[in-house]
Every structure is written in C-alpha cells, then in structure tokens.
Amino acid sequence: MENPFYISGLIPEEFFCDRDYETQWLVRTLQNKANVLLTSPRRMGKTQLIKHTYAQPSIKDIYYTFYVDIYPTTSINELVLFLSKEIYNVLVPKGKAVLDRFLSTIHSLSGSFGYNPITGFPSFDVKMGDIHSPQLTLEEIFNYLEHADKPCIFAIDEFQQISHYPEKNVEALLRSYIQGMNNCRFIYAGSNRHVLENMFNSAAKPFYNSAEQFYLDCIPKDIYTGFAIEQFRNSQRVLTPDAANLAYDLFEGHTYYVHNLLHNAFAYIDSNITVDKDEINRILDNTLQEKEHSFSSTLSQLNYQQKETLVAIAKEGNATGVTSVAFVKKHSLKSPSSVQYAISTLLESQLLTYENRGRIKIYRLADRFLEKWICRTY
What separation, in Å, do the N-terminal and C-terminal C-alpha atoms of the chain show? Predict the structure, then answer.
C-alpha cells in the first residue's frame, strides 16, 4: 500500500496537500513574465511547491522547466557545471533536434559533452577542470535560454550561496545576463531569508527590486489535519483528530517534520490499530532514538560555548534577546560576547536560523527533530 505522506521525490497530485493559492500565484506571476523570490524556513516545502507548479498543464505544456539546488556549490565554476548539467538532463528526453540546439550554443564546452562517438548516445562528461572560462560559458547558457524554441523557467534553489563565492561581483555578473532576458523567467529560492531579502531589497545590490517576493509559511492547521485524516481513511486506517492536531502542534505546522511523523505512523503501525495521541508520541520517541547517533555526532563537533548556546536556544524554542544579561543568566552561559560569537558560527553552519520581526531577531534551531532531541537529552 502506497504511503501517502511523501518525504522525498516528487509528490503525486493526489497526495499533494493544499498550496492551491501559492501554486496559482506562482503560475500567474511566471506567466506574466516576472521573476520570483521564494523564501521559507528549511523543509517547509518550497522545492515541492516549485515542482508542483512545474507539473501544472499551463506550465508543463508550454515551458521548458529547470530546477537546480546550488547549495553544494562554492564557486562560479561549480555554478556553471550545475546549470549546464541540469539543462542537458532536461533536454535529452526532448529529442535530438532540441538537444542539438543547446549543444550548438555552448561552444566553450563542446569537447566535454554531446554524443558518445561509439554508441551515438548523448553523453555529459563535463568536469570542473573543463570549465576554463566560466563567464563565457555562463553567457552561452543564458544565450541558449533566451533563444530556446520554447519559453523557459529556471528555478535556482539556495540562491544565496552565490554571495559566498570567492569570485567578486557574481551577483552583478548574473544580473547583467538576466535583466534583458524575455524568454526565460527565474525563481530564486532559498531558506536563508535575511540574506536573500537583503540581496533583493537593498538598493545597493544588483538584484534590487528585480523579482516578485513570496514567503512560504505553514499550511493552515485545519487544512493539513483534514488532509492527514482523509489520507488514513482512504487506506482504511484511522487517525484521530486529536492525534492529527498533536502531530501538527509538535512542530507548529512545519511541513517536513509533521509529514515525516505521519509517514512513520503510516508505515510502522498496523492498519488495524487506531493512531491516537499515544501512538504519535511513541512514533516521535522512536524517530528521535533512530536519529540519536547522528545528533550526538553533530554536537560532538561543537566547542563548549557553541553547544551550550545551541542547547539554550533549543530549550527556548523561539529565542529572543540571546545576548542579553537575562538570557545569559537564565541558561548559565559564559557571557553575552561568547554567545554572540557562538551564534555567528552556528548560523554559518546552518544549525541555527533566525527571522526578523520588526527590530527583534528570533532564533531557532533549523532542525526541529534536533531541537526535540536536545530538549529531552539536556
């Protein structure tokens, strides 16, 4: 029996929960030839939303759609590699004529991909060392997108990563290529909201005011719990309303974690057993126990000040005033300055995240399961 609570891969339409307004907004905005900045906390579902949008007939039947996550990249050379490989992989199934159009445009990499001379099959063998002129290859990539035989949509996830590249003026370079394009729309997505919004809202930045902005929040509780109960019912199983509410509340509606909990409940509880609040708590206990080794390893890589700061923020849930004397005393921390230094490191390693509410910064652990485990362990 198929588990309706997908936690990886593309979610089929029948198992996709809500996001109707968000999907319609994305479709309409892209059709109106505007670029999009899509931000959300990690694992809130933005990747699935993008792919769900791509699957809509008004997009799928008209556009070439590309998606690439550049979080692993650390240089403009890697960016070129990721972009070119994604275009290649999307176009291969479209047929030889479509692929040839792309191959004929990328002259700077012509010796590294194309067709295998023995088998005649398409072959992509580009390595980072093959990219000798990344700016030239980028120009060729954007030239292809602008002159492709169909309009294109290109989603670049974790777009804020370009701000960490050692090469100077990467933002300005990309903006110079993109700003004049008519045939390709871009979705700039990411979870580092404060960095991304600074890139697009600061008048001193190249991407200033160049995209329509959308913040992806939790699915409303009544919609999500109704969906969850229905999915169990469709499989002749029972998820009680109290259990559905508890699963949602444990993670404040954070999509991945609620979905993961219900995925495990569906997978590991016999179909003749009613899933009630006790079963949800048992599943959570098992999930945290399974992750204990990984979490212990993560904390073992932190120094003492970083670890005690992470534990303090985990216990707060939503932590404010983290460098105040009151916060330091409450959690028996060393000093405000040591907390400030620890937080900068934890943010850089993406163990922490934060959002601004007015002038107040609210810190939280990026991994809600890790947060639960720390609160139970420490």
Answer: 39
